[in-house]
Amino acid sequence: MKENNLNREVVVIADDFTGANDAGVSLAVRGKKVSVAFQTPFTGDTDALVINSDSRAMVASEAAEKLAHYAADVTAATWLVKKIDSTLRGNPGAEVEALLTLSGKRQAIIAPAFPAAGRTTQGGICRVSGVPVTETEFASDPKTPVRHAQVAKVLAEQTALQSRVITPDRLADALQGDAPLLIVDAQSDDDLDQIIVAACGCDERPLLVGSAGLCDALARRLARPRQLLAVIGSMSEIAQQQIQRAGEVANVSRVLIDIDDVFRNNMAGYLQQISTALAAGHHCLVHTCADVQARHQIEKLCQQRGLSRAALGETISAFLGTLTRTALEANTPAALYVSGGDVAMAVASALNAQGFAIRGQVAQCVPFGRFLGCRWQGPVMTKAGGFGTETTLLEVLHFIEEKMSD
Q1: What's this model's pTM, rounded to 2 decimal places?
Q2: What is the CA radius of gyration of the chain?
Q3: Where in this chain does the record put each Four-carbon acid sugar kinase N-terminal domain (predicted)?
Q4: Rounded to whole angstroms, what are the CA distances from 260 to 239, 257, 284, 317?
């Protein structure tokens, strides 16, 4: 999870505005919050930052110098992408070298292919609908004409870094070698997906260099999951009915917390159950109340533990807060749902939240938004324990599965 909004999952450097949008749209479609910046520093809340350097028509040295202004954004990225034109226009060699220097990365994967638009690379040659790019209209582009169809020659005009042409199936081995520029053929989306898989297998993430095709492949890999982690501390009858109805759905797993484990601070087994459920693609409902009768056992439980009702509630809420924080450190559900005011506040406290930004309403009595200034930056939904109908939690699950994937 991110400690602040500058440690972004993806940072893309594009050399023109439409290219920046092309690079970011697939991430947005797959649930990421994407912003395109014309100026930096950009401090907005975003999962993916796309910076338009507007450098395509600059001379190579000026383009490289302009990228130096983005050093802070480049070093904070989990994934760093240099968006280039699929027909090799612009300053790919100079800008790739500049970003390698800024980021400290050892290698760049260069895959300009965009098969969905008829742009492929075979034997290191850039083709448009099967024709070498130098035999198309892009060779006479009025601003940035393309003089070479071989990707290596285009790069060599602007950088002395060594390059090597390989196929996707050989990329994993090549990433263990010394060549700083790995030009990878791609004739299909499957090839681009294979490239991203190889990049994910590296201890040090390489610089990704490509057009919208490679950006789309990265977005497919990083697509936000649609699972909900629900933490329900309320013992109200309606809350139990909501759990019961939602638990009848096939892709929902329930994790019942034993109160004895709360006092033993034994949460390892529950964390494993939560991880297993989310990894299986299930929504996960964490709750402390087995049925509607459990609320009538509170007085007996307080006597056994020598605690007041308030102290008992605080102990359970604190356990759930810590459990939730730890679960979110190990998993990335699509959203977090907390029911019961004390539990919601305990979760916020465990995450070091400084506030809550309301964005809207999912279902009746279920506001949603984001915690401010804290570790969890995903959507958060809250509900007072006794509010809603027996189908409220089902409505929330529907929102996660349908609306959040639009």
Answers
A1: 0.63
A2: 25
A3: 11-218
A4: 22, 9, 21, 14
